[in-house]
Design a protein that fits this description.
The chain is 30% helix and 20% strand. The chain contains 11 helices and 16 strands. The structure holds iron/sulfur cluster (SF4) (2 copies). One iron/sulfur cluster (SF4) binds next to helix 7.
Length: 347
């Protein structure tokens, strides 16, 4: 059966049209006053201003609050070094990008601790991801409002609703598992032997001696050491095959959606070649398309993909970005078949 995907043209995105989407999906009616909703947003890396506008986030919070439900804006820290690599820096950047608790009238929570060290594991039936490492704070939420900015991505082709929660609600170790084929390693010539990494390693997996700096096979892949190393000597192998990353992202979405209901939004606005994790602001690669929303994350991503696939394939001819859509459908996350329903302000 085809999933319903709601579409709002760029100039029609307003509190009224967003409220109509919530009414048509009846998403909020599934929750009781005891439930908490996690509104997943990407605040954008430093110097990147193509992230989702805080005004949209505020509109959606106001709609949720009309139903008396509790909502928090949530994120996790990045795997790579940058302005979002730990909770303190990340919250500061969120404010700089217009996402303050005062403005949004909702708490902002970084769900995986100060350094990404707080996670819980969800066993899966898959062979690629056997236990997904999810941000521990996610356990407090029974619903997810997934607000994704749709754009290109140099590893997987595009980033939409599936990627926004897969990467965005995994702890650092989960992000590492999706991005990397191997464990971490230390660049011995760079290491200054300060031993800061030893203090955070939960597995006593790091060996720093006068003659060598090593990560042993005791490593559990939590990635906490990456954040504390002051000189970036701990190396991530970013060469994971695109196909592997896409498959693992789908498996992480499966784990995230166990016992959790979600609604997914793809803002196909300011569609840039690269993701909001880049520390620069790119020009959009095409005119704005609008907003797509659905209870089905596969249909929601596929509806935008069908509008942008020529441009994305031209940009990344070496990638097959449809792997995540095909595999997500195969493992039961949703369907690529959809019915597009336009929502207008005046109706
Ligand atoms: S060496 Fe492995 S287990 Fe230790 S902090 Fe680094 S990633 Fe985590
Ligand atoms: S934190 Fe970095 S520089 Fe310090 S000992 Fe560990 S790897 Fe070497």
């Amino acid at each position: 059966m085809a999933a319903e995907v709601y579409f709002i043209a760029p100039k029609q995105i307003s509190s009224r049209t967003l409220e109509k989407v919530f009414a048509r999906t009846r998403f909020l009616e599934q929750f009781t006053l005891k439930d908490r909703l996690a509104l997943k947003v990407h605040f954008g890396e430093k110097n990147n201003y193509n992230h989702l506008a805080p005004e949209y986030v505020k509109m959606i919070i106001e709609i949720i609050k009309k139903s008396q439900l509790k909502v928090s804006v949530v994120e996790t820290s990045s795997l790579y070094r940058g302005a979002r690599q730990n909770r303190t820096a990340h919250l500061k950047l969120a404010i700089e990008h217009g996402f303050s608790e005062e403005y949004l009238n909702a708490p902002i929570e970084i769900l995986d601790g100060e350094r990404g060290e707080e996670y819980f594991e969800v066993p899966t039936p898959f062979t690629s991801v056997k236990k997904a490492k999810l941000a521990r704070g996610l356990q407090n939420f029974s619903g997810i409002v997934n607000l994704a900015h749709f754009k290109g991505h140099f590893v997987v082709g595009f980033g939409g609703a599936l990627k926004n929660i897969a990467m965005g609600l995994a702890a650092k170790g989960g992000k590492l598992e999706m991005h990397s084929e191997t464990k971490l390693s230390i660049k011995e010539v760079k290491c200054q032997k300060c031993k800061k990494c030893l203090e955070v390693c939960p597995a006593q997996a790091i060996l720093i001696t006068e003659t060598s700096s090593l990560i042993t096979n005791k490593c559990v892949g939590c990635a906490c050491c990456v954040e504390v190393c002051p000189i970036g000597a701990i190396k991530i192998n970013w060469d994971s095959a695109s196909e592997t990353t896409q498959v693992r992202m789908a498996e992480y979405v499966w784990a995230i959606l166990q016992n959790r209901r979600a609604i997914h939004f793809n803002f196909a606005i300011k569609i840039t070649p690269n993701c909001d994790c880049m520390d620069f602001t790119e020009d959009p690669m095409m005119p704005d398309i609008g907003l797509f929303a659905s209870l089905d994350p596969v249909a929601c991503d596929n509806a935008v993909w069908e509008q942008v696939h020529i441009a994305i394939r031209n940009l990344y001819p070496q990638l097959n970005p449809e792997i995540i859509l095909e595999y997500s459908e195969k493992i039961g996350l949703g369907t690529r078949k959809y019915k597009l329903i336009e929502i207008k302000d005046e109706e």
